[in-house]
Amino acid sequence: EFRDLLRGIGGAMIGQTDEMVPADRELYALRDTTATVESIPLISASIMSKKIAEGADALVLDVKTGSGAFMQEEAMARELARAMIDIGVRMGKRVRALITDMDQPLGRAVGNAVEVAEAIETLRGEGPDDLRALCLALGSEMLRMGERAASEEEALTLLADAISSGRALQRFREMVAAQGGDARVIDDPSLLPSAPLQMEARAEASGYVQGIETREVGQAAAELGAGRATKESSIDHGVGIMIEKKVGDHAEKGEPLARILARSEQAGIRCVQRIVDAYGLGDRPGSVPPLVRSTVE
After folding, report:
1. pLDDT per residue over 107-154, tens digit each?
2. What phi, psi does 227 have (nearest 5°)?
3. C-alpha–C-alpha distance, residues 91 and 23, integer Å
4. What is the average per-residue pLDDT within 253-267?
5. Full-model pTM
């Protein structure tokens, strides 16, 4: 069914199931039990087992580094990328990895439904500049690896045309419908799950954003319910965080740094304080690292 969707529509989403890479569930459990979540051999096995099972001939990997990534040091991210590339090459695949920055949240949305809405905006040609830029960088690599474009310039032209013509959004609509989703959300994102409460995490002093503890932002979103605390936990798709200030931006005292979308007042209050504490403000703007730090082949 997955491959039929790829042939018919050109895209599909799939995760680990009892039939699709069943051993991956055991690998995840092993990483949790043995406190080896950041083990490069186990991460590589987990990721590449799924990629190889999908049947792709070529792979483009987005390997994160920075304060919000498993691999906070770029050298470790490159080591992970090389390990995955080595597995792919041994299996007869062509693999390339981009080492990309996660020293601040990508885009503005942190959560589930809010990130889907942001993805739809980006497919419309809108959305945050950094998210759009990363999508174009990864898409360019994919087109060249798939021999649909001979150069980066040609690939970027093809991608820009797919977005501006509406074809990219239409393809997403077809994929959602084919996989049993509600394709109406493409035209009306308000149909997505939402949270009843909105709160603001406000700057406690004026200054420039010098840094954001991105992992803390992710953990704050998870505490709201956007992620699982345990394997048995359920996910609240409507909660999340909307980033208002990013590295380099100026904030006046009392100005919102982020908006919190919460299910309960108590959870929202806890999240507000975590977000305020995650921001570092100072007299000068913080430096923004390159979005794509390097390429590993």
Report:
1. 999 999 999 999 999 999 999 999 999 999 999 999 999 999 999 999
2. -135, 175
3. 18
4. 97
5. 0.91
Higher-pLDDT residue of 66 and 35 is 66
- Least Cα distance to 141 among 162, 126, 159 occurs for 159
For residue 44, what are the contacts with CB-CB under 8 A and spacing of at least 6?
A: 80, 83, 84, 87
Q: What is the pLDDT of residue 56?
A: 85
Q: Which domain holds residue 96?
A: 2-188
Q: Is residue 274 part of a domain?
A: yes
Residues 218 and 275 in one domain: yes
Check if the beta carbon of residue 239 is closer than 8 Å to that of residue 111: yes
Helices (H), the chain: 2-8, 23-33, 40-54, 74-90, 113-123, 129-145, 152-164, 167-178, 214-221, 265-278
Whether residue 67 lies inside any domain: the answer is yes
Whether the CA torsion 154, 155, 158, 161 is positive or negative: it is negative
pLDDT of residue 32: 63
Decide: helix, strand or coil at residue 39.
coil
Is the residue at 245 inside a domain? yes
The number of domains in the chain is 2
Domain match, 116 and 20 both: yes
pLDDT above 90 covers a percentage of the chain that reads 75
Question: Contact at 8 Å (CB) between 208 and 286?
Answer: yes
DSSP 3-state of 197 = strand
Q: How many residues does the chain have?
A: 297
297 found inside a domain: no
